């Protein structure tokens, strides 16, 4: 494994990283936030952080804590520097921080839990990178899903962890009904981007979309198509309007659309259709996985995206009209 090179100033003195290495280390944090949506741009990461703080200071602060902890863990144990500087070791920690503060509440115990869970996510990420390499599959957000799901299932057994947890019922629990209004549609479209980071305010989702457009208009278009497809699938199958409004049927489709439309599969007519089918599949998988995990006290998180994308990417070698990007 690579370790950050150092350059001693004089014999016997401790080695110090170069200014460029320090700069890249700092920029690895916003890049780690951006990599949640597969983007390497630190400008996109900074815009994403603004969106999180607009959604609530706790989301921005705990997202930063998780990203920094996971990134530092990877550096400490010698993960190759190119992965660290690109933000590939920080994005799961970002989601760990945002997800756990949402479900466990804002208190000092959650701070410790997020630090521990982010360290765990870094370990799971390294393990999955090795295990999935033989299948040419990326780890995606699976490290976040594994660690966060385990923590949420275990949390009720730990009094200090669970005592301050807020109730987070789905919007449809208080506003049932399947009649969809125009407001539900445009709210749901923007919330599809926000719910990737557990945000349910449409203007926060709009900021995330701006961040994607800053990185790539193609990616922003793929994400937008994913959000629309998720909405349409939910509406067509008769999903609760309040859940559509909140973006709960869009966020996994957003991620799947980005992943399959140019990120891991070469973009073309066949690739666009392939990505659209994947986005629709992720939308249907969302309530299936949600209902399954509700039994054990867990949440769907981004599992629908992860499982759908793994299956679709594994199928590419047998589909002659498609080609992997690498």
Automatic annotation (TrEMBL):
Which InterPro entries is this protein grouped with? Answer: Ammonium/urea_transptr, Urea_transporter
Map out region (Disordered) in residue numbers.
1-21
One of the entry's Gene Ontology molecular-function terms is:
urea transmembrane transporter activity
* Keyword Iron-sulfur appears in the UniProt entry: no
Task: Provide the transmembrane region boundaries.
Answer: 46-72, 84-105, 111-132, 139-158, 202-233, 254-280, 300-322
Q: Which Pfam families match?
A: UT (PF03253)
Q: Which UniProt keywords apply?
A: Cell membrane, Membrane, Transmembrane, Transmembrane helix
For this record, the Gene Ontology CC terms, alphabetical, are:
plasma membrane
Q: Where is this site: Important for channel permeability?
A: 302
Protein family according to the UniProt entry:
Belongs to the urea transporter family.
Protein known as: Urea transporter
Organism, as annotated:
Actinomadura syzygii
């Amino acid at each position: 494994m690579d370790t950050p090179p150092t350059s001693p100033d004089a014999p016997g003195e401790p080695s110090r990283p170069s200014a460029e290495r320090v700069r890249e280390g700092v920029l690895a944090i916003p890049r780690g936030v951006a990599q949640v949506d597969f983007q390497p741009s630190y400008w996109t990461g900074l815009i994403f952080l603004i969106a999180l703080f607009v959604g609530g200071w706790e989301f921005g602060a705990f997202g930063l804590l998780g990203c920094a902890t996971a990134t530092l863990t990877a550096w400490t144990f010698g993960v190759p520097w190119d992965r660290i500087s690109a933000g590939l070791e920080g994005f799961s920690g970002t989601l760990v921080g945002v997800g756990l503060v949402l479900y466990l509440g804002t208190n000092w115990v959650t701070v410790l839990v997020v630090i521990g869970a982010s360290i765990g996510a870094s370990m799971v990420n390294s393990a999955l990178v090795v295990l999935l390499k033989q299948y040419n599959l990326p780890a995606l957000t699976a490290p976040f899903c594994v660690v966060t799901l385990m923590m949420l299932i275990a949390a009720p057994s730990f009094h200090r962890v669970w005592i301050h947890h807020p109730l987070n019922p789905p919007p449809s629990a208080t506003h049932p009904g399947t009649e969809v209004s125009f407001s539900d549609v445009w709210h749901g479209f923007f919330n599809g981007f926000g719910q990737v980071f557990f945000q349910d305010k449409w203007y926060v989702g709009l900021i995330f979309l701006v961040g994607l457009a800053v990185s790539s208009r193609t990616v922003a278009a793929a994400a937008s198509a994913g959000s629309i497809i998720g909405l349409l699938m939910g509406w067509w199958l008769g999903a609760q309007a309040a859940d559509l409004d909140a973006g709960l049927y869009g966020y996994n489709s957003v991620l799947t659309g980005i992943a399959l439309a140019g990120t891991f599969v070469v973009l073309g007519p066949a690739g666009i259709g392939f990505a659209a089918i994947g986005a629709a599949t992720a939308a249907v998988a969302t309530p299936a996985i949600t209902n399954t995990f509700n039994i054990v006290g867990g949440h769907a998180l981004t599992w629908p995206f992860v499982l759908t994308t793994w299956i679709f990417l594994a199928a590419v070698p047998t589909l002659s009209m498609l080609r992997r990007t690498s």
